[in-house]
Amino acid sequence: MFEFAVNKLRVQLVLAAMLFLPTAALARQNDESTPVDEAAGIAFFEAKIRPVLIRECYACHSVQTGESRGGLQLDTKSGLLVGGDSGPALVPGSIEDSPIWSAINHDDYEMPPGKQLSMSILEDIEQWISMGAPDPRTPETVAVTGTVSEDDIERGRKFWSFVVPVLSTVPVSDTSWSLNEIDQFVLEKLKQNDLKPASDAGPETILRRLCFDLVGLPPTEAQLKSFEKLWKADPDKAVATVVDKLLESPQFGERWGRHWLDVARFAESSGKEVNATFPQAWRYRDYVFDSFNDDKPYDQFIQEQIAGDLLPVEDDEQWARNIVATGFLAFGPKTLIEQNPRQFTADLIDEQIDATTRVVLGVSVACARCHDHKYDPIPQTDYYAMAGIFRSTRTFYGTLNTRQNRRPSQLIRLPIKDADPIGEPISSGELKKLSDQLADVEVQLQETAGRRREARNNPDGAQTLIREINSLQTQQASLQGLIDSYDEKGKPRSLCMGVQPVAQPVNAVFLARGEIDQPGEQIPRGFVQVLDENPPGIDSDSSGRLELAQWMTRPENPLTARVMVNRIWQHLIGQAIVTSTDNFGATGEPPSHAELLDWMSVTFMNDGWSVKQMIRRIATSRTYRMASTFDQSSFEQDPENRLVWRGNSNRLDAEALRDAMLAISGKLDVERPLGSEVAKAGETIARDGVLRSASTMLNLQMQAEKAGLGENLTADKIRNRLRRAARDRNGNAGEMMRQFAEQQPQADPNVAYRSVYLPVVRDSVPRSMEVFDFAEPSMIVGTRDVSNTPDQGLYFMNNPFVIDCSNNLAKRVAREASSLPAQIQMIFTVCYGRQATSQEFHAAQEFVTAFETETSSDAGTKLAALCQSVMASAEFRIVD
Amino acid sequence: MNEPRNVTNLFSRRQLLQTVSSGFGYLAFSGLAATASAAERRFEEKSTNPLASRKPHFEAKAKRVIFLCMRGGPSHVDTFDYKPQLAADNGKPGRRRGNLLGSPWTFEQHGKGGLWISELLPNIASMADEMCLLRGMQTDLPVHPRAMTALHTGNTQFVRPSLGAWTLYGLGTENESMPGFISLSPDAGTAQNYGSAFLPAVYGGTPVGRSGRGGGQFGGQFGGARNSGTVPDIKNPVLGSRSQRQQLDFIQQLNVEKLRRDESQPAVEGIIESYELAFRMQGVMPELMDLEKENEATKALYGIGDGQSDQFGRQCLLARRLVESGVRFVEVSNGNWDHHQNLQTQLANSCQQIDKPIAGLLQDLKQRGLLEDTLVIWSGEFGRTPDAQNGNGRDHNNKGFTSWMAGGGVKGGFSYGGTDEHGYEAVDGICHTHDWHATILHLLGLDHTQLTYRYAGRDFRLTDVHGNVLTDIVA
């Protein structure tokens, strides 16, 4: 049915985060490949290299002599590649990246100490490294050991979650309460435990629940009116109608897509020490929202994220979407400061395995990196079988190449251009100017590096020069990155994060205890044994990633459907059936309703993996409709409501709270913004919540030049000079200051679009999100924390955003309702989705009459204070 | 701080309070109570205030706790567990894959008690006579998040109340304008480690500041507020304290009304309590957080102003200011001690970050007469292996590691328990997480078998069915 149109050559790779030394970068990517003429290489090593190593190096760096100064041993291949205290001594193919090269040239270290090797030896070594450092000194391999036997695995297959789910028989019992099969299962369980389901909640409560659960927004007054009318006629039909409407609304995908972003550990920066931005990550975010809105079958959704680059496609649009989907494997947190490329690759693969298995399968295979899984029958070899799949995959994540960032990568150029690109095109003159600036910086850099070499014996002077060099290198990287983000004509390029297969797939090597210096034998690429008795094979010319994606989403996979319906259930019912939502293994929690879970899993697959259909089934059940009423005897028997004898009251999450405040104050912008603040900033380093971008910097420099502040100033200098000018009331400096502030993209911007589009910079999550338990973007978060802190109190009492929303709501209410009683009713209706009770009404009336601030007692102030109070109250913050 | 409020409000609120008071262990309207009529206040405090200072089970040695939590698992064999045999066997095969790695640092004996402490921590070593080393520590799992949760809650499987929450539940607080349990700059996603779980929300820890690169940071992420030692949104830009109290009374009226309707709603209780606490915090926090109130000598004592130790020094000084003001339990954390490689530089860096601040804290507490009844505890979630990983790093080790305590009724200059000749496993004076918890509660005058909370029909305790008090270390 699809035209098979995969043509790897069409995916062009560009150096978006231009590497300081592009040749080094290419070599890095190739370090797994075998040199063409192996025999000649080894002959060269034996003739020219080994004698030198023995003569000059072994005395201080070898296993034989027992000396390993600086942790470095040079008499084994792995010793060379793994390196010592300061990382690997040698990177095959790249002299620039090989510390041994600078050491023997006496650039930093002096090796051998006090002696300069002859020019011909240096040339030999240069040639040897460039040809990929062929080295026949095979390391001792570690035997593969394990404690998990075939029997263990066979027994493991009987564990409840590893058994393929079957369509459970629907219990037949009193059907007057039940509306669908889900209710039958729930009711049966309650009966067995002598519990009774709570009665239905009122229509206002149900509508509020539905609106927040399905689209993350409060019901409007109009929705409330129409729902109440429908409800009177036929409650079942009323619910079904509203559910259908909400599922069709574009806000649905944003709400449910965000749940997915929680587990996908989505973020727009690398986090950790460097925290470089991912300006293309937003494409994946939008892809996820669109997928939920399109009700893309869940199996396809998973396949696209794991192997979208390998799936057959019909056209370039689909192809582009599929590549963007593989961003899932690319935006995990990264230790970009890592010196050792092998360690970095091992960690990258580990993160990909962890995300893939926990998000999709709900089992933690990454636990088996260092040893057999302690609880589940997952041997360490399973881990390395999967590692081979990801080792045969190249990951593209970009990132600005600064001195700290030792592991930048390229990005993928999309097959189609953005219809609406981020950023304006620039003229050829401007492009030329950027190139000139770059050339300028490069000249300066060379000069400074020369001076640095001369100043070798003057430590103080050298320090200043090193700082200068660092700053020049950062400028160079920013400029290069900026230039690369445009095509030859000055139009912004369309780039994305994601993965691509390598030309020649490889197996991973078993590493004892997961340590890169303890290699064992190769493990053939494969899948998790306990989940499949007869796993499909992987062809030698295939990485196995597509096979993995298909294997995970085959109907016989016992976990994938279960894990997803459990997540859906959790977001609607308020508590999951398996509460350890990312862990269905032996250390996870047993299901509260095993038969129901299986029935839903199989039904989900029978429905064509339709997420919307599963939501529809749950949302139209009687179970969903139960009131959250307290009942003493039921509570004593089942205090945590595991058996669902009543509805769960849940706190609104961070996004829903912020969106609701914006919505009721009439300010919410429901349009999807283009890209994100991080995309605007481009490739940069996130520091203290400021995303100082290269392009805004250059803009600013140009303005500063025009204003006569000086040439090529740094941001700090511009800010200081502007401050001074503003103080001296000099020209329009005040206005420029304001622009300066506005031009800096913020990790916590003051915007009115939906919260799901706020930037997600690791370690700088916007306050409105962070204070209400936003999912930590460096972790897979199936279930968010629920905390109750005075910080939340302070936020509602004092935060300028809350105060703004209160003022806007007050204005809206004053506009739309004329009398105070009508205004009070309107405030309660928009906030609570119901009319005020008489107590509430009188209390509000009393409050408004008596309230005055220290400086004002006008009606607007009073009304705003009332609005803020109702928004701050518990009922607004909780969905019953 | 609070102005008298109008009488009609009071009347209706008292009715509501009485309606909901049955069946709930809270009514934490200490802020309301503080301004209510004398008669009303007596009624509320006597019967219900859950944060009121309470008598311990027996005479306490310690009244408050500062928990110095070292995230990532510090190496014991390079800091507090002197292993000459490990040095002698350096390079020989270890029990696992790597070869034995003798500590690259030298150890010396310090103080009257002659405690062996590594040269990495010269300042802390100078306080040896205040310290009690527990060198036979053990925990169940060598996995970071779970071992960390065990260290805090005694349980890895379920969400359980944390040590600080149990302490607050047992003893109440001495300053009702401050949270009784504060966690300074906790890592994101670790709410469970300072949470109250099934204990009433009022006993949960309050996170102040957020963790980030290079140690903890205080405040929001805007315009430099991050390191300025302020709490975000601590002041209303428009309202004064009188009008804000008026507004808050109305908010609470709505909340109590909801609580009355719903009968049982822990989330609503939590919201009510958090507002009262937030309101009171506004009055006292800004000044308390302002380290500029301290003189230069004190700041220098904590290593503030030194690049390496500045960040943690600020946290330690803040911890002292907080306990001094009556906060019952303060947790300060430092990371990252997960030194899988480059031990030589990384561990030295980590030690530099904490050495002056902790020594300064102990000295400062001592000179203020606070050390005798303040229990300072230092621990990571586990220790590290005596054998090498990645050439010059160490792996996780849950079978044996060192923690220490100071002040608060422990023997100073004392070492308890020990590991085998290389430091793999605790062999005597074993102190499992449960024993550690039992001992800490004991020093606070609480019997860990008696400190229980009934939840879902069962009496729960911090130590579950385990825990032995290490009576040998009590002074």
Write a brief caption for the model.
Chain A is 48% helix and 4% strand.
Given the structure, what is the number of helices of chain B?
13
Helix content of chain B: 25-40%
Distance between the termini of chain A: 47 Å
- Mean pLDDT across the residues of chain A is 86
How many beta strands in the DSSP annotation of chain A?
13
Number of strands of chain B: 19
SS class of chain A: mainly alpha
Query: Radius of gyration of chain B, rounded?
Result: 23 Å
**Strands in their spatial order, largest beta sheet of chain A:** 1-5-6
Proportion of residues in extended strands of chain A: under 5%
| Biggest chain contact | A-B, 81 and 80 residues
Major beta sheet of chain B, specifics? 9 strands, mixed
Using the alpha-carbon principal axes, give the shape of chain B.
Answer: globular
Structure description:
- The complex is a heterodimer of chains A (880) and B (475).
- Chain A is mostly helical and 880 residues long.
- Chain A is built from 36 helices and 13 strands.
- In chain A, the strands form 6 sheets. Chain A has a 3-stranded antiparallel β-sheet with strand order 1-5-6, with no helix packed on it.
- The longest helix of chain A has 27 residues, at 428-454.
- By secondary structure, chain B is of the alpha/beta class.
- Chain B contains 13 helices and 19 strands.
- In chain B, strands 1, 4, 5, 6, 9, 10, 13, 14 and 17 form a 9-stranded mixed β-sheet that branches.
- In chain B, helix 1 packs parallel to helix 8 (241-262) and helix 8 runs antiparallel to helix 9 (266-289).
- The radius of gyration of chain B is 23 Å and the shape is globular.
- Classes of the chains: A mainly alpha (880), B alpha/beta (475).
- At the A-B interface, helix 31, helix 34, helix 35 and helix 36 of A face helix 1, helix 8 and helix 9 of B.
